[in-house]
Write a structure and sequence with these properties.
The complex is a heterodimer of chains A (409) and B (323).
Chain A (H helix, E strand, L loop, with lengths): L1 H7 L6 H36 L1 E8 L3 H4 L9 H11 L2 H7 L10 H13 L1 E6 L2 H18 L3 E7 L3 H5 L12 H32 L5 H13 L4 H15 L1 H4 L14 H25 L3 H9 L4 H30 L2 H6 L19 H9 L4 H34 L1
Antiparallel strand pairs in A: 1-2, 1-3
Helix pairs in contact in A: 4-6, 9-13, 9-15, 9-17, 11-13, 13-15, 14-15, 15-18, 17-18
Chain B lengths: L11 H8 L13 H37 L5 H6 L3 E2 L4 E2 L2 H32 L2 H16 L2 H20 L9 H25 L3 H9 L4 H12 L1 H17 L2 H6 L17 H8 L9 H35 L1
Antiparallel strand pairs in B: 1-2
Helix pairs in contact in B: 2-13, 4-7, 4-10, 5-7, 6-7, 7-10, 8-9, 10-13, 12-13
The chains are: A mainly alpha (409), B mainly alpha (323).
Chain lengths: 409, 323
Amino acid sequence: MTATFDRQHPDPENLPGRQRAGKVWQGVFSMSLLVGLLALIVLLLNITNQAGGLAAYRNKVEPASLSPLPLEETPVEALVAILKENLSINRIKTLQRDGKLEDRSQTDLAAIVTEQIVKPEVIATYTLFQSLTRGDQIRQEILAQNPDASVVWKWWLTPDFLQRSMSSNADLAGVRTALFGSLYMIAITILVAFPIGLGAAIYLEEYADRRSRINRIIQTNIDNLAGVPSIVYGILGLAIFVRLLSPLTSGALFGSGSDNGRTILSAALTMALLVLPVIIINSQEAIRAVPGSLREAAYGLGATRWQTIWHHVLPYAMPGIMTGNILAISRAIGETAPLIVVGAATFITQDPSGPFSRFTALPIQIYNWTTRPQPEFRNIAAAAILVLLVSLLSLNAVAIFLRSRFGRR
Amino acid sequence: MERPLNMTKIPRAAQTTAQEGYAPPDLRKKKRPGETVIQAFLFACGAVSILTTVGIIYELGKEALLFFGSPEVRLWDFLTKTTWQPSIGEFGVLPLVNATLMTTFFAMLIALPLGLGAAIYLSEYATQRVRSIFKPILEILAGIPTVVYGYFALTFMTPLLRAILGQNTVQIYNTLSAGLVMGIMILPLVCSMSEDALSAVPRALRDGGYALGATRFEVAIKVVLPAALSGIVAAFIIGVSRAIGETMIVAVAAGSGPAFTFNPLAAAETMTGYIARISGGDLAYDTPDYNSIFAIGLMLFLITLVLNLVSRYLVHRYREVYE
């Protein structure tokens, strides 16, 4: 009896002990916060760690056997001669389709020689950490096993990486097509989701009678839709946009030839459905923050409801709406699962030409490269992740800038 | 002074203007067709969300019915058999459900204690300065795309587990690694929802505790935490719902291939992972594979819907107590 009593009401005499217990637990609580911070740091370090480091190459043909000078310094004529000597006539013809070899720049020709004749092959890659701590040891090990290999420092994220299209060779692959695909898709998503989402938010905040059943159903429904797993939206998009509406989404109705609904348009519409609830909820919050006195003043001067909303409520709420929506859009940029289901292709070398083209997107590339067995694809996946994270961070920075700039007015 | 008889009906204030030949102002509500059109359009925007829900239920339900209607699938076998091999006509969903539950379990094992601890710290101990540093960090953690977490699980967590537990005991793809990283992903969500619940507890309750001689820790654990319990349970439930629906981490790190195993160090495919793998290629319509992703999608939708509704109910009820 007394024991129970003591557990529920701590002994008032033992104050130092209780204070100590409090301190210990405070430490435990702050630890859990620090674990979150630690996780973020480790995650970023891990990705940077994979995005650069030593890489061991083996060349099919040694450049030294082709030319006495390094390829970068070999004159144009010599490079052309090397190409003509080592490649079949048909291959040369294919290369000359865009113009004569002699007319090309020296760097261009050197790149062609590397790609067509030298054919470097990655045999091993090392992380930044390994390369920095025991770089010499790694060099010796590789050279002991493969005397003809060359070991070089390699940053996988280069300006070239942003400009090249897909390739089955990790060394020559880039994210250009994926970046264009993501941009196209997000542009259409914004065009569709923003007006509808804003409209729904205005209706719910300014027009809807909260007591009426239909409006309550709409509100509850939006809150629930925000919690539906993204892959379910993907399945919905597959059934409706890709399959049911394929004449529309493939562009067959507009005479674009193909009748395959796995296009940018389908993906963008699916994404629009996915972000719509978030956009509505964020916009509602921004509109709700507009003081009622502003509306009453407008009504008092004889403005109609829509005039009040258009000229007074929306301009006042816009910074909040923009901030919330940029965050929603940045969620859509990183979203992968619905795109897999809707059918983004993983290997595409052509830039998308319009809403009806097949496409790939940045997160899809990251997924694809991560799941390949060759280690060098992990490295370019890390480089692509850096591209994705930097774009998301800059979007967030824009949101913060908008908030501070319009907030001051 | 002859006055037209009907003038008596005009309000006195309007009489002068009326005598000068003006019509009296019409005080009835003016018809504004433009306003009505705008309102109808805005209502239509709101109704899109209803259409989305109807679309999800109709499409998923229709294809799932086709799936269960096909002769080789029986609902009872679907729910109880432990082999999932659509290509040879084995439709037992348990391996997928089991893997989903395992990853969810490990995710919550991380997210609940850490999220709750961080929330208690932020709400009860932290100064304004500390909060202004850590809240953006949690927001960044919450904003990282899930495919990046998948990469993290595969290239960091799995090698770490293999280094600790042994290369042979831990497979390259395993549910433990995916679950732990998923826990890190869900941590900010659980933390911010729990913190909202804790901060909503009225100050008077805390002051009462202090007045009775309780320490800060005792007030936090014995007064604030019980008072915010329903909100914390709601955060936990939303976290579970998020973990069940999460796709990319498990698709990358948990393994591709259904396996009925309770070993967290072995590969097993979850429900979402299965959908992602099957729909990855150019999936042919009206095949058992195609229909099966709708059946599993419907299950996912219903499970998360129920969890979200329960969570909303809890949050709502607890708000009524304190506001």
